[in-house]
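Sorry to interrupt, but I need a hand with the structure work. Leave the record below and I will have a look:
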Amino acid sequence: MKKLLLSAAIVAVGLCATAQIGYGVKAGLNVSSITGDDSEGLKSKIGVNGGGFVTIPLASTFAVQPELLFSTEGAKIDGGGTINLGYINLPVMFQYRKSGFIGELGPQIGFLASAKAKFEGETEDIKESFNSTSFAVNFGAGYQMESGLGFGVRYSLGLSNIIKESGSDAKTSVISLGLHYNFGGKSKE
């Protein structure tokens, strides 16, 4: 068993050493909302996202891309208020990459960094009313040029309830538009 594990580790290290691992930064705009039975009176709001990523080739056209992103999400409240949520998101995207095109799908865990409600000029910390983690599945597409500069769109469908209250139904829903830069240019295909 030890020999099998050692052999697998040597093969994995060898594959990683010969693969062109890329890394980069990304930033963009979010259009977020809160969906579910407890989302009545809430509308979409604009936010931002940004962070870094590592692209690890698995085969000639497939890669896995773990990311670390800060994302501002939430919703507008009818009557003029807002719910502002700040998440540290960790998506792991499985990508199909061909001729610059990128199609991606993957899970995401989010850690709530802040939660504030703003209404009539007053701001209140509401973090204790929200779950500290959230889970989502992401779908996306993009394009990366030879220079390493690229753009993409991603939809994050919340799977877990974000409110602590028992029996509540509120999930995140986020559309992200963004730019990214992969240092070292486009991954080999």
About this structure: The chain is about 10% helix and 65% strand.
